[in-house]
Specification:
With about 210 residues, this protein is an alpha/beta fold. The protein folds into 2 domains: about 80 residues, Orthogonal Bundle (Methyltransferase, Methionine Synthase (B12-binding Domains), Chain A, domain 1); about 120 residues, Cobalamin-binding domain (Rossmann fold, 3-Layer(aba) Sandwich). Helices cover about 55% and strands about 10% of the residues. The protein has 9 helices and 5 strands. The chain has a 5-stranded parallel beta sheet, with helices on both faces. Strand 3, helix 7 and strand 4 form a beta-alpha-beta unit. The radius of gyration is 17 Å and the shape is globular. The N and C termini lie far apart (about 40 Å). Bound molecules: CO-5-methoxybenzimidazolylcobamide. CO-5-methoxybenzimidazolylcobamide (B1M) binds next to helix 3, helix 4, helix 5, strand 3 and strand 4.
Length: about 210
């Protein structure tokens, strides 16, 4: 659809105001919210990611595109969350220590909220101790850790260990994800669930909460 392509193009150019205007047009045109997210916003960020990898664009351009994406996401957030009627569980989410990537984590957060769960967002650069303390404070059923760097994904093992040390391991499930994370890695560190994308993370969170 042309409008979704326009969203993708505007995002790639880092035109935050245009992204917002186009996303609003798509909402007004009753475009399914998942299409706005996946075929507009995420498609644009995917292209930026490839260009970043190939050194065709650099960190500032990526940052500006990421801000534009977050602006678009803010507009569709209520529509994604709309489906959730009452809270079905509590999830503490964050990007692990040393890691500042938050776009994927924010998507997971929205999708989980869309399933009717309460989400406590600790942000980025979250220590294992902070994950565990928040899970305790909010009586969370799930700790959800995101990592985008191969150098930070090891922090997830620390989260599993700290949860054990705090005597929380039976009460809290630990879910992991992010581009470098795999099912094999999840199994190796003793986490409970891995999800490759935000939508399956939300399905998985709901299944863990209602199990
Ligand atoms: Co960074 N970066 N970055 N970056 N960045 C990557 C991740 C990289 C792959 C780029 C590359 O080289 N090709 C590379 C990592 C290499 C590696 O470790 N293997 C990289 C690097 C090296 C770096 C820096 C070190 C660069 C530098 O400074 N030299 C630096 C690190 C800073 C730090 O964190 N300490 C850095 C910085 C940045 C920016 C700040 C410029 C910006 C982040 C802005 C922000 O997040 N607010 C940025 C970005 C945007 C990217 C890319 C281009 C895009 C990431 C993204 O948002 N993707 C990325 C390249 C790429 O991915 N192609 C790259 C879109 C997002 C929707 O996808 O986060 O994967 P993603 O989330 C997915 C799934 O992974 C999953 O669901 C989401 C979608 O459905 N998911 C989960 C995520 N978390 C989950 C949790 C779950 C379940 C599923 O359960 C709990």
């Amino acid at each position: 659809m042309a409008l979704l392509n326009d969203i993708s193009e505007a995002l790639q150019k880092g035109r935050a105001q245009d992204v917002k205007t186009l996303v609003q047009q798509a909402i007004d045109a009753k475009t399914p919210v998942r299409e706005i997210l996946e075929d507009g916003l995420m498609a644009g960020m995917g292209i930026i990611g490839e260009k970043f990898k190939n050194n065709e664009v650099y960190v500032p351009e990526v940052l500006i595109a990421a801000r534009a994406m977050n602006g678009g996401i803010e507009l569709i957030r209520p529509l994604l969350v709309e489906a959730g009627v009452k809270e079905r569980g509590t999830v503490v989410i964050g990007t692990v220590k040393g890691d500042l990537h938050d776009i994927g984590k924010n998507l997971v957060k929205m999708m989980v909220e869309g399933k009717g769960m309460k989400v406590i967002d600790l942000g980025t650069n979250v220590t294992a101790d902070a994950f565990v303390a928040a899970a305790k404070e909010h009586s969370a059923q799930i700790i959800a850790c995101s990592a985008l760097l191969t150098t930070t994904m090891g922090e997830m093992k620390e989260v599993v260990q700290k949860a054990k040390d705090a005597g929380l391991r039976d009460a809290v499930k630990i879910m992991v994800g992010g581009a470098p994370v795999t099912q094999n890695f999840c199994d190796t560190i003793g986490a409970d669930a891995y999800a490759p994308d935000a939508a399956s993370a939300a399905d998985s969170a709901l299944a863990l909460c209602t199990a």
